Amino acid sequence: MYARRRRRYFTLMAICLVLFVSAWAFVRLWSVPAAIALCAVAMVLPPLAAIVGNRREPDDRWWDEPPEDDLPPDDRWTGDDGPPRDG
Fold it and tell me: Quick one: DSSP state of residue 23?
C-alpha cells in the first residue's frame, strides 16, 4: 500500500525531471515554444505527485484510526435491540 503510493510519486517526479531537463537540453534547439510547453507540464507535475502520494487508498487506515486489534469491545446489549424498559 505505501510502496505503491511511493512508486507512483517517484514515477511522476522522474517524469517531471525528464521533461524539464529534456526541454532545455535539446528540445529548445528545435522549438523554444515546445520547450516552454514541456516546462509548463513539468511545473504541474510536483503538486499532482504530492496529491497522488498522499491519497488514502481503501486498504489504508487513516492517521487517527486505531488498528483493528486495538478496538474496544462492543458495548451493545446482546439479544434485545429495543430500548430498556422500566419494571
Answer: I
Instruction: State in Å, rounded, how far the first CA of the chain is from the last one.
Output: 54
**What is the arithmetic mean of pLDDT over 29-58?**
92
Q: Which are the contacts of 12, defined by CB distance < 8 A and separation ≥ 6?
A: 45, 46, 48, 49, 52
Question: Which cell goes with 76?
Answer: 451493545
Mean pLDDT of 55-74: 67
Question: CA nearest 14: which of 51, 39, 36, 42?
Answer: 42
Q: How far apart are CA 66 and CA 57, in angstroms?
A: 16
Greatest Cα pair distance, the chain, in angstroms, is 91
Question: In the predicted model, what is the mean pLDDT of residues 30-49?
Answer: 95
- The DSSP line for 46-82 is HHHHHHHHHPPPTTSPPTTPPPGGGPPPP-SPSS--S
Mean residue pLDDT of the chain comes to: 82
